[in-house]
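Retry 2 of 3 after timeout on previous attempt. Resubmitting structure tokens to design endpoint.
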């Protein structure tokens, strides 16, 4: 069995402090993947394991203990940005930006989840990270992958095949790439009640 301890961010007091965290725009991902197809670029995808926990908190947060850990008069002082905390996504974005810029990449101001340097593009959506590189920059891309693996615990997903729930199908010989959303159709069909009129469309 797998469990994750989360913070009840919905119980946190609202403050005037900025909680906004940028997320990658879908149009940015489509544009980069269009470049991948047009210029026959390499792709490599990683999944950051427990991404938010890589971020240290910049404020004091005290929580009650979850069931199974509670002791009378004791509480937890959080050291890391647990999932559910209002500020966790912003802290993870800040952590990712710090690490990627330290590796020589520059943040693209039009989309703060997009980074680039000569012949290399890195973009991420929460814990999904894709590195794109020109074939001439494979050594440099390998160095970035190695340093990211040292900094964070990453799951190597190989060549990009899924992103934002979209299946990526590629034919490098034809320099063609398709973005398929068949998973949305499949999951929607499973959610529909057999008595729902729309269920007549599925077999």
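Retry 2 succeeded. Sequence:
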């Amino acid at each position: 069995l797998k469990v994750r301890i989360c913070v009840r961010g919905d119980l946190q007091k609202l403050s005037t402090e900025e909680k906004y965290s940028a997320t990658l725009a879908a149009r940015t991902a489509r544009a980069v993947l269009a470049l991948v197809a047009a210029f026959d670029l390499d792709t490599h995808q990683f999944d950051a394991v427990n991404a938010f926990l890589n971020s240290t908190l910049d404020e004091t947060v005290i929580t009650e203990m979850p069931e199974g850990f509670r002791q009378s008069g004791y509480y937890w002082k959080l050291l890391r940005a647990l999932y559910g905390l209002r500020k966790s996504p912003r802290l993870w974005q800040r952590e990712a930006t710090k690490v990627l810029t330290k590796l020589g990449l520059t943040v693209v101001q039009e989309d703060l989840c997009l980074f680039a340097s000569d012949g290399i593009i890195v973009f991420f959506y929460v814990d999904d990270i894709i590195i794109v590189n020109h074939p001439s920059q494979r050594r440099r891309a390998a160095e970035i992958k190695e340093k990211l693996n040292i900094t964070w615990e990453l799951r190597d997903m190989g060549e990009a095949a899924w992103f934002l729930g979209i299946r990526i199908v590629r034919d490098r010989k034809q320099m063609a790439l398709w973005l398929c959303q068949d998973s949305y159709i499949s999951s929607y069909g499973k959610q529909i009640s057999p008595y729902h009129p729309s269920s007549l469309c599925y077999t």
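Attempt log closed. The chain has a mean pLDDT of 88.
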